[in-house]
Amino acid sequence: MSWNGKKTRSTKIEITTIDKTYNDPLARKLRYFLKKNRLSVKTKVCFSKELPVKLDSKVIASSVFVPATAGMVIASEVLKDTIKRTRKMFNLFFFKIFYIDQQLSQE
Q1: Cβ contact 61:34 at 8 Å
Q2: Residue among 77, 6, 78, 76 at smallest CA distance from 48
Q3: Is the pTM of the predicted complex or chain greater than 0.85?
Q4: Rounded to an integer, what distance in angstroms lies between the CA atom of residue 93 and that of residue 98?
């Protein structure tokens, strides 16, 4: 999830869990829905710590680079999680092979 309407500073974007977000009206509604339905609020989200810019217009726009930066931050987090999970599976796989090899060599 990423709500970046009315934002101008891409340096304020970060990844956290939804229960730790602030200055984000969409996250507030989602937290309420999750708590009301007794669902986990420990889901990872991308959000901006920046306060929304006050505009007279009804348009919810941002600087063009803010959503682009949010997308890159999300992609980076997905890659980090994938590498972490793959590394665990890889280590477990080779541990099992090593253990079986040790058992066979003892026989």
Answers
A1: no
A2: 6
A3: no
A4: 9
